[in-house]
Amino acid sequence: MPAMRRTPLVAAGALAMAAALLLPGPAAARTGHGGSANGDAQGPTEDGGDGTLLAQAGGIVYDRSKNGSGAKTGAIAPTGNYSPPPCWYGPTYTPAQFKKEREAVWAVDSTGHEWDMAQRKRYVEGEPYKDFNMDKAGKGYWWTSFPNKSYPPGWDKCTKETFWVDKGDPPPADAPEAIDPEILAKLAYAEIRVPGTKVSLAPEAETKVNLPTWAWLDGAEFKPVSVTASVPVLDIEATTTAEPVSLKIDPGTSDAETYPADGVCEIVDGRIGAPYAKGKSKETPPCGVKYLRSSGKGSFPLRATVTWKIHWTGTGVNGEQLLPDGEFGAEQDVVVQEIQAINR
User: Fold this and answer.
1) What does each of the 344 residues of the chain score in pLDDT, given as a tens digit?
2) d(CA 15, CA 145)
């Protein structure tokens, strides 16, 4: 049986797996900014010579401290044809760490003689690298590819073999997917979590046919949220922010009218809709619904969807950059009863 040919992507996957096994404990523990490292892209650490941890060399670090919180938070769905970065290249190993990883792979003799020999020529024998660039320790990093953990279309297109980049130098031109602030912003987009969208209704337990039902969301929960993604060893970062802009009410039946007529309740003075209060029974709600028929023995699935405006700022970028809006919604059951006439 001929030796199996190892593609760069398979090799990169083996590298990432081996790295996870070989990393010292403090590397996984260091998160920075009170955030956490992306498990798919967590990289090695660099020792300052006195046992202290200087930098995390490749893991994307997320600061989620300004994200939405609570049991009912969820990820927003981008609108339009937007898709996240399918894969990227990032700094992953110091020379010593890459040498340790690759020699460990060769030692188990699981990758085939041809692949091992080609790798030795590439990284040890000077075609084009020599001895894993050990003479450049502290002057750069070995970069590898990382597939997006959601595996969108194109996740396997980053097939460039592990390559070296000196500190301060740009990645090679044939690696356009090299990590940069814009990619970080898009990865941070996927980490954003926003509050649940169960709306408060009045009447609350059940409403009546032809009776305007007021709807609103807790203004304290619906405020901007953000996530920052960074690569410390490259000194780059991006912060992606989501701001609520409107609430869309879908009554769950065509036999209903919404307020406003298009069902879109804009945010006014930081609030979505307005709570019902005594004395407002004859007023038209700024946000709400009126059902034109009973739900019978069941209920109507009212769906409330909040639209979030997304933008980002980052290293070397002037002003806010727009990303596609995001949406997050949920359904809740609404019981609608006929108004009972009183016969005298």
Assistant:
1) 333 333 343 444 443 433 333 332 223 222 222 233 333 334 444 443 332 222 344 578 999 999 988 778 999 999 988 889 999 999 999 999 999 999 999 999 888 999 999 999 999 999 999 999 999 999 999 999 999 988 999 999 999 999 999 999 999 999 999 999 999 999 999 999 998 888 999 998 799 999 999 999 877 778 899 999 999 989 999 999 999 999 999 999 999 999 999 999 998 887 889 899 888 888 999 999 999 999 999 999 999 999 999 999 999 999 999 999 999 999 999 999 997 654 44
2) 10
Q: What are phi and psi of 95, to 5 degrees?
A: -55, -45
CA separation for the pair 329, 267 (Å, rounded): 16
Number of H helices, E strands in the chain: 5, 22
Question: Which pairing describes strands 207-208 and 336-337: parallel, antiparallel, or unpaired?
Answer: parallel
Q: For the chain, report the end-to-end CA distance as a whole number of angstroms.
A: 95
* Element at 256 (helix H, strand E): strand 256-259
Peptide bond into 260 cis (omega under 30): yes
Query: Which residue do the tokens 């007023």 mark?
Result: 283
Run of H or E residues at 19? helix 8-22
List, in sequence order, the alpha helices (H) in 215-305: none
Instruction: Please say whether the beta carbons of 43 and 19 come within 8 A.
Output: yes
Torsion (CA) 152, 154, 159, 162 in degrees, nearest 10 = -40
Q: How far is CA 232 from the centre of its chain?
A: 18
| 210, 47 contact by CB (below 8 A) | no
Tokens representing 10 are 């398979």
What is the DSSP track for 198-216?
A: PPEEES-S-EETT--EEEE
Rounded Cα–Cα distance for residues 245 and 183 (Å): 25
Tokens of 60: 């994307």
C-alpha distances in Å from residue 78, one per residue of 83, 85, 263 = 8, 13, 20
Provide φ and ψ at 123, rounded to 5°: -110, -15
Give me the sign of the Cα torsion angle 317, 318, 320, 322. negative
